[in-house]
Amino acid sequence: MIALSTVLKEQVSHIRLIFRVSVNDIKSRYQSHYLGGLWQFLNPLLQISVYWFVFGLGIRGGSPVGDVPFFLWLITGLIPWLYIAPVLNQGTKSISSKINMVSKMKFPVSILPTIAMLNNVVPFVVMMTIGIILVIVNGVFSGIYILQLPYYLLCMAVLVYSVTLLTATLSIVARDIQLVVQSIVRFMMFLLPILWNMSNLNAVLIVFLKLNPFFYIIEGVRASIIGHTWFFEDMTYTVYFWSIALLLLVVASSLHVKFRNHFVDLM
Amino acid sequence: MEPKVIFKDVSKSYKIYNKQSDKLKELFLFNRRKAKQFHALRHISFEVYEGEVVGVVGLNGAGKSTLSNLVAQIIPPSTGEVIINGEPSLIAIAIGLNNQLSGIDNIKMKCLMHGLNNEEIQRLMPSIMEFADIGDFIHQPVKNYSSGMKSRLGFAISIHTNPDILIVDEALSVGDKTFYRKCIDKMNEFKERGKTIFFISHSESQVRNFCDKVLWLEYGEVRQFGESAAVLDEYTRYVKDFNAMPNGDKKLFKEAGLKRQYEPLVQKEPRQKPQGGGWKKAIEYTTAFVLYVAALISAFLMLWNV
């Protein structure tokens, strides 16, 4: 608890630093690319079109999911994932890639995963907006249910931060964690309701897939845009999600605070 | 006068692991079999006051860089206490520049991380560029820089972030005479403003000209600490004697010194556990446990409802 409040206080009191470093990061990341910041959008767009082609046209033969055209069903799940996946990878590396820089000064290391999260926010917000507009234009918009979108975005932020703080801290101790996260992120997409509709699956199996807290977020974001359920309708799952997310946050922050003075020694 | 830097019986030990996995075992499993320890610094105690310039001398491996990292609060001491009253800033050859970024971007990055805002950076930028004196190369990625350029840039950035305690770790040894002159001027300016400087150098003449006091380290221990001239005279004699030794003797001497660094530290008193932290830990464990149970129960309910 104490470690948790230390970590949270650091986020709040360095909020300006977080923004400045993030802006600088984004600027410098695409500096040596000819297409510059355009890559932030090109890469996800390419992925969306390939998945739509393979899963929508190829496997499903273009049939809709319920009343919703597959393309819209796909992007409402894929856009949040296209934010989560790179942040998990970059967040895990965030501390070890900057350790040489920050170790020569006093710097609140716990804000580095936050910076990684912020670095990917702009394309996410832009694509989310375009996605919602497409849904509205096609007349499958959820209406009032959109009000729970901020709630699910909060869930996403808490979970992603907890996971990346944990993996970033552990990857200082053992570099292997970076590779573990990379491969888990790669296959986890297929175990989430992003590319294929799970309604045909055995109910027990679905529960097991639901134990992955990212399931809650993907389904929730989709429910806010094209669905017809509130988050409090399934209270058991909501309690489950928050217990897992907060447990991760408590464990991550206490490990982080315990190890961070020794980061330089451990490298 | 308040001491700026206090070292109380400080030691810095590194564990020597045979395997990568031993490190993990020690971290997580409270391995009973202790790893072999190498003491880079042993029982160091000294005090440095405001406005003092302390030269740190010693042969290779004496623990100079470890000492500078401890003063800069980059690494924590293993035992003992380091008290720093002020904001330290370390200047070393490997300063932690990002090789992919240009000089300008590195200046921005480092200043941002030191907590300066954009206006302050804009204001400092010309002065930093002027001091670093790398001309048009400032727009090139740092990986194309020579070692002198890198160290000049690092030095220029570090002194412009306005530290109270400046630690200069052999950064000047790569610069030419003009740059050296400029650094000394800047450091004298710091000295006059009452800031404390640690100056780590192999050049005895640099130390003699610039420092008030000298700390002489030998194999992780303080050999002497006192007025610059007296200590340096002794040190010069010592280095001369050492160099005059036949090679075989040198090797024996070094081995004896290194062996001493593996010997266990003198335990003065049983280390006291910090009091009052118990209930904090208890809250943390209880919260984690409650959350864990909540997750288990809700997962079970989800399965039950199917």
Which characteristics define this entry?
A: mainly alpha, 73% helix, 0% strand, B: 306 residues, alpha/beta, 6-stranded mixed beta sheet, 3-stranded antiparallel beta sheet, 10 helices, 22% strand, transmembrane helix (chain A), transmembrane (chain A), ABC2_TM (chain A), ABC-type transporter activity (chain A), transport (chain A)
3D structure, described in words:
The complex is a heterodimer of chains A (267) and B (306). Chain A is mainly α. Chain A has twelve helices and no strands. Chain A has one domain. Chain A has helices at residues 2-13, 15-29, 39-59, 70-102, 112-119, 121-137, 149-173, 176-188, 203-210, 213-226, 235-259, 263-266. In chain A, helix 7 (149-173) packs antiparallel against helix 10 and helix 7 runs parallel beside helix 11. The longest helix of chain A is centred in the first third of the chain and has 33 residues, at 70-102. Chain B is built from ten helices and nine strands. Chain B has a six-stranded mixed beta sheet, sandwiched between helices. A three-stranded antiparallel beta sheet of chain B has the order 2-1-4, covered by helices on one side. In chain B, helix 6 links the parallel strand 6 and strand 7. The longest helix of chain B has 27 residues, at 278-304. Chain B starts with a strand and ends with a helix. The model of chain B has no long low-confidence stretch (mean pLDDT 81). Classes of the chains: A mainly alpha (267), B alpha/beta (306). The interface between A and B is large, with 44 and 48 residues. Chain A: Keywords: Cell membrane, Membrane, Transmembrane, Transmembrane helix, Transport. Chain A: It is a multi-pass membrane protein. Chain A: Belongs to the ABC-2 integral membrane protein family.
Concise structural overview:
With 267 residues, chain A is mainly α.
